[in-house]
Amino acid sequence: MKVKLIIATVAVTVIVSVGAMAAMIPPFGSKGDVSYAKNLWSKMEAKGLNSTPANLYVGGPPHGKVREVLEGTIDGKRVVVKRNYRGKDITVAKVAANRAKYLKSVTVMQKRKGFDPADADWYWVKYAPNGDVMKNKKGMSLAGKVAKGKPIGCIACHSGAPGGNFVFAQNKGLNAKMVFVK
User: Fold this and answer.
1) Are 143 and 35 in contact (CB under 8 A)?
2) Where would a tag sit more exposed on the chain, N or C end, judged by fewer CB atoms within 10 A?
3) Can you tell me the distance from the alpha carbon of 13 to that of 20, in angstroms, rounded to the nearest whole number?
4) Residue 36's CB: how many other CB atoms inside 10 A?
5) Cα(113)–Cα(175) distance, rounded to whole angstroms?
6) Using an 8 Å Cβ cutoff, are 71 and 181 in contact?
7) Are 47 and 72 in contact (CB under 8 A)?
8) What is the pTM of this model?
């Protein structure tokens, strides 16, 4: 009887420990997330999603005062690319004259069936202009289910998009129409 009790206690301890360790693993920034992001950047480069000009428009935080949005498909998966521009006294005209000078980040959403069904299956990543995956203040790579379960961040903000698809409709009055890249 004592042996069965000891075995049961050990089994419960192992299950609880494994569950606790799984709960400690953040939902983003893993080696797999970063590897996927690097591969995605290469495919975006090949497709022209990093070089095709789009309609510049004025926006707000967190993406940048001036931005442009493109959409395309990579490996049959929908991709939304937002280039985010910042700088002192920035204007649409200044960015149009020198996009490279003001580009501060590129934020991307890619639809991946089964990746995150609770949040419409979007994969999220934030790149530096050179394609490196950016990190948050805690040093975590911003790739994967970025800020999942947090009150602020990619998923929390985009969950409020009309239609439940996590993609905000662009403001045509501000020339903010999304450009589709074939």
Assistant:
1) no
2) N
3) 10
4) 19
5) 31
6) yes
7) yes
8) 0.82
- Helix/strand/coil for 180: strand
CA nearest neighbour of 170 among 34, 62, 67, 16: 67
Per-residue pLDDT of the chain (182 residues; tens, 9 = 90+): 665 545 545 444 444 333 433 445 678 899 999 999 999 999 999 999 999 999 898 887 888 899 999 999 999 999 999 999 999 999 999 999 999 999 999 999 999 999 999 999 999 999 999 999 999 999 999 999 998 888 888 888 888 887 788 887 665 555 567 777 88
Residues 157 and 93: their CA atoms lie apart, in Å, by 28
